[in-house]
Amino acid sequence: ASRFGRRRPFIAAGAAFVAVAVFLIGFAADIGQLSGDPVAKSPKPRAIAVFVVGFWILDVANNMLQGPCRALLADLSGANQKKTRTANALFSFFMAVGNVLGYAAGSYTHLYKIFPFTKTKACDVYCANLKSCFFISIVLLLTLTVLALTYVREKQWSAEQGNTTAGDDEDEDGKSESSPMPFFGEIFAALKNLQRPMWILLLVTCLNWIAWFPFLLFDTDWMGREVYGGDSSGTAYQLKLYDRGVRAGALGLMLNSVVLGFTSLGVEALARGVGGVKRLWGIVNFVLAFCLCMTILITKLAESHRRFATVAGGATIPLPPPGGIKAGALALFAVMGVPQAITYSIPFAMASIFCNTAGAGQGLSLGVLNLSIVIPQMVVSVASGPWDALFGGGNLPAFVVGAVAAAASGIFALTLLPFPQGDIPSAKGLMPAAFH
Question: What would the DSSP string read from start to end of 307-328?
Answer without folding.
Answer: -EEE-TTS-EEEPPPPHHHHHH
